[in-house]
Amino acid sequence: MSAALRKWPNWLKDCIAGLSEAALSIPEVMGYARIAGMSPISGLYTLLLPLLAFAICGSSRSLVVAADSATASILSGSLTPLAGQGSADYIRLITLTTFLTAAFLLIARLFRLGFLADFLSRTVLVGFLTGVGIQIAIMMLHDMTGLQHSSGNVLIQLWQDGAHLNAIHAPTFALSCCVAVTLFLGQKFLPRLPTAFIIVAGSIIASRAFDFPHSGISTLGDIKAGFPKLTLPSFDLPSLLAATPIAASCVFVIITQSAATIRAFSFYNNEKTDINSDIFGLFAANMSAALSGTFVVNGSPTKTAFAFHCGARSQLSQIVVAILAGVLLFCATGFLQYLPHCVLAAIVFVVGLNMLEIPKLLSILKESPGEFRLAILTLTTVVCIGVEEGIFMAIVVSLLRHVRHSYAPHTDILFFSKTGEIETTIPRNGAETEPGLLIYRFGADLFYANCTRFIEDMDRLVATAPHPVHQIVVDASAMTNIDYSASITLRELLSRLGQKNITLSFGRVSTSLRADMIRHRLVDSIGQDKLFNELHVAVATARQALSR
Fold it and tell me: What pTM value is reported for the model?
């Protein structure tokens, strides 16, 4: 934002930002409509009522709600096998899925399910979005090359395209390449210039002047002007059952992506985040989208970032975008009939390439190869099977990763250096803190799945210690609770250790852990005098017992 613009009133800066946003959003949403299998005019509908609904009902000043490539891919990938794109059944399924998405968002708001955003790790989200980007780029190759559409998985489509290279329409492919290169260079060297809008306007003028359809370059054709008619989507039981899991996938992406965007920009806008209130705004936006016959909308990270850098600091900028979209729908759709399909396809192709998170994937590979494999698994699922399956894979992988860390936590044996400092080592055979004493740290809550490892570690360390063990101190700093199954297993361990004259005590016992031990009657087995708030007190007590 320029120094001169900073001196202007906030409302004026928001209006100017809205003009810039409209120039970016109008061509993009028409491209996203192409991804979703809808007409370009339905993309413009996403800029009308949904934007106004979120501006009124949402709490975030910074989040930009619009058509989104990820949710559009979920819709097309899941609904195309059920009905032909553009058919009446397909449009009915789209609006039904959007309606269900809104309904699920309302339920999420009522039950305050904003925390669901925390269950999708950034690692698998990077893999998911990169897979969506690859899928989008491949999907656009048909229109960019002038080849006929083929059905099936995107990899099958890519194979079929490669087998028909001799059928590529040269003028269409040349125009697509020019658009893609121009857009890429504009984004790189002139990021604030509305390159996509300039390309669309220029291609419309050129198409009308040089009669592109006569050269074999297909255009959008007649587009009906006017505002959308507000209607409830019709449905039957089979379509309801088919749309429900697709809507659930969209909801998870919407909550996760929108929450991440809100949190990222709330710092710059100096505003408090209320994800649940914004979920209500997203419900209102998607409900208005369903009623106006268009498709799912989502919080957009790229458009939010663009709006912020253009000076937008409130939802007034989105109201300006909605007004401009309304003007275009009312009196200027006649010009869109000359817009070539390949131009929109090339714009979306570049959007797909921009979604490839290659630097982040390489960073994950460098820092955590295990998490990199999870990201690649999610990416591969999206590309090879589908976006809907990819989002469920992302959820499952995220949860399994969390369970794995709890199932196999880090464990340590603590010992004292020559200077008296506490250091750690892996609890291998023959390890001990000092003769007769083991200080053992278990890095997770103790529950039914990992209590066996805790017991096995104890038995192994006692059996392989260089000197007979008489005192074991457990550093319980990572433990906040013990469940019923673990309490029974721990009671059995205490019995075996007692038979060997080994005392087990706990240091750094939290209030919640102590409450669990009382509830499961473990205090009676361990002894109240063996539970310590501080580790050094527990160790000193154990040492004192050894010296007797």
Answer: 0.76
